[in-house]
Amino acid sequence: MKRNASLLKLFTVKTFLMFSVPAFSQSFYVSGSAGQNYQDDTSNNGTFTSAFTTGAVTGVTPPLNIPAGSAVSWTTDYDNGNAFNLAVGMIRDNYRFELEYSQTEADVDRHQGVTAAGIDLSAIDAGVLISGNVGDLGVSTAALVAAGQGELETSTLTLNAYYDYKTDSAFTPYVGVGIGTATTDLEFSPSGVGVISDDDNTFVYQLILGASYSFTDNLDAFASYVYRDADEASLNASLLPARFEINNESSLLNVGLKFSF
To answer: For the domain that residue 84 is a member of, what is the CATH number?
Structure first.
C-alpha cells in the first residue's frame, strides 16, 4: 500500500507542476457520464483463519476438522450492472487532466465450485458448511450457492491523464490512463445465507479509449471504453472463519457530456 500511495502522490505532483506552467492556454471542465459495467468473474481464494469443524451430514459423519491455514475457494459470476461517473478537469492544448469519481455495481448471478481443504463440496449437503450442524438440510452445496444473490459495488477516485487527437472536424478521439484508490464493497448471500459482507480499499488503475463530439465551443458529448483493474480486496467471511483475496476487474462502456468554461 505504501508503494501505491507513493505512485499516486507522484502522479499528483507531476499533474500540479504541469498545471502551474504558464506556457499553454488552458480551460476547465466538468463532466458526467453513465453506462454499463461488465464485471469480470471473481476467483474467491481464501484460507481458514482458525480451525473449522464441518457440519455432520450424509457422507461426512463424523464431521471433519479442518485446520487453520487450509484453503477454501469458489468462483462467482455476475450480471452486467450500471456505472456512474463525475469528473472535474483542466485542458491544456491536446492534454487533459482530471479528478474522477466513479461508482459501479453488479449483481451476483451464481457461485460455483466450492472447495475446502482440497475437498469438492458441490455434491455434499449444504449443512456441511455450518459448524455444529447435525443432519442434512436437503439441498446440496452446489444448489445452495447456484442461487447467487448479493452484489459487488466499487467506488473509485482516480487522477486521469488524456491525450486528445485534434482533427479538422467536430470529432476528437482520445486515449487516457488513470490511477487512484478503489473501495470494493462485497455482499455474498446465496439462497439468503450470508457468506461475506465486507469492504476493502485498494490501488486501482484504468486504461481509457474514447471519442468526443463538439456541439459548441463549451459543450461536448463523448463515449468511452474503460478497462479497470483494482488490486485484490482482502475480505472476511461471516459464515466461515476465513479470509478471502478477491479480484476486481471490469470493463465499462460510458456515454456523457462535458461542459468547458
So the answer is: 2.40.160.20
Largest CA distance in the chain: 77
What are the C-alpha distances in Å from 224 to residues 58, 121, 206?
Answer: 53, 42, 12
Among 190, 114, 186, 107, smallest CA distance to 146 is for 190
**Contact predicate 212/221, CB 8 Å:** yes
Query: pLDDT tens digits, residue range 13-48?
Result: 555 544 444 545 689 999 999 999 999 999 999 999
Query: Do the domain assignments include residue 240?
Result: yes
Question: Residue 129 phi/psi, 5° resolution?
Answer: -80, -10
50 within domain boundaries: no
Helix (H, G, I), strand (E, B) or coil at 147: coil
Q: What is the pTM of this model?
A: 0.86
Report the C-alpha gap between 253 and 259 in whole angstroms: 20
pLDDT in tens, 176-194: 999 999 999 999 999 889 9
In a domain, 83, yes or no: yes
Task: Provide CB contacts within 8 A for 22, sequence distance 6+.
Answer: none
- Judge whether 64 lies within some domain: no
